[in-house]
């Protein structure tokens, strides 16, 4: 299961979070743990260079894209390999929406479309859509013309 997708700014403030199957009382722990993990390890990392960690039998893959940090947390079948594929889909979708690796301002300007992308990519803890064109079609916000 894909337990969490978190996106934070360079100061460690969380911009977007999606938890699946994580009890409410554990979410604060995960937020602070991931932000600290990023603060300790993401300095000087190139865009989209993947880092991997393991904590309490779950896997974490995280990276920097522009001025935001992206964290994916998974367990069971979502090991580091599956998470690296999932984070590639997430970073590609964010770059497509923003047109380039985002600054925090650009990310917040495109916040709604980014959230739609995340909702199409991850559904109830499962990687749902990975095809870039399909995700673009699904988030167009236009009603279908055919009935």
Automatic annotation (TrEMBL):
<dbReference type="InterPro" id="IPR039652">
    <property type="entry name" value="Coatomer_zeta"/>
</dbReference>
<keyword id="KW-0472">Membrane</keyword>
<keyword id="KW-0333">Golgi apparatus</keyword>
<comment type="function">
    <text>The zeta subunit may be involved in regulating the coat assembly and, hence, the rate of biosynthetic protein transport due to its association-dissociation properties with the coatomer complex.</text>
</comment>
<comment type="subunit">
    <text>Oligomeric complex that consists of at least the alpha, beta, beta', gamma, delta, epsilon and zeta subunits.</text>
</comment>
<dbReference type="GO" id="GO:0006890">
    <property type="term" value="P:retrograde vesicle-mediated transport, Golgi to endoplasmic reticulum"/>
</dbReference>
<dbReference type="GO" id="GO:0006891">
    <property type="term" value="P:intra-Golgi vesicle-mediated transport"/>
</dbReference>
<dbReference type="GO" id="GO:0000139">
    <property type="term" value="C:Golgi membrane"/>
</dbReference>
<keyword id="KW-0813">Transport</keyword>
<dbReference type="GO" id="GO:0030126">
    <property type="term" value="C:COPI vesicle coat"/>
</dbReference>
<keyword id="KW-0963">Cytoplasm</keyword>
<dbReference type="GO" id="GO:0006886">
    <property type="term" value="P:intracellular protein transport"/>
</dbReference>
<protein>
    <recommendedName>
        <fullName>Coatomer subunit zeta</fullName>
    </recommendedName>
</protein>
<keyword id="KW-0968">Cytoplasmic vesicle</keyword>
<comment type="similarity">
    <text>Belongs to the adaptor complexes small subunit family.</text>
</comment>
<keyword id="KW-0653">Protein transport</keyword>
<dbReference type="InterPro" id="IPR011012">
    <property type="entry name" value="Longin-like_dom_sf"/>
</dbReference>
<keyword id="KW-0931">ER-Golgi transport</keyword>
């Amino acid at each position: 299961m894909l337990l969490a997708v978190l996106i934070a700014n360079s100061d460690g403030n969380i911009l977007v979070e999606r938890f699946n199957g994580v009890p409410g009382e554990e979410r604060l722990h995960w937020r602070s743990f991931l932000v600290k993990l990023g603060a300790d390890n993401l300095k000087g990392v190139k865009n989209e260079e993947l880092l991997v960690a393991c904590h309490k039998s779950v896997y974490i893959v995280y990276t920097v894209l522009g001025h935001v940090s992206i964290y994916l947390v998974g367990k069971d079948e979502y090991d580091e390999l599956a998470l690296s594929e999932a984070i590639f889909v997430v970073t590609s979708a964010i770059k497509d929406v923003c047109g380039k690796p985002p600054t925090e301002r650009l990310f917040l300007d495109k916040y709604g479309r980014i959230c739609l992308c995340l909702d199409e990519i991850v559904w109830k803890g499962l990687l749902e859509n990975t095809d870039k064109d399909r995700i673009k079609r699904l988030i167009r916000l236009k009603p279908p013309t055919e009935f």
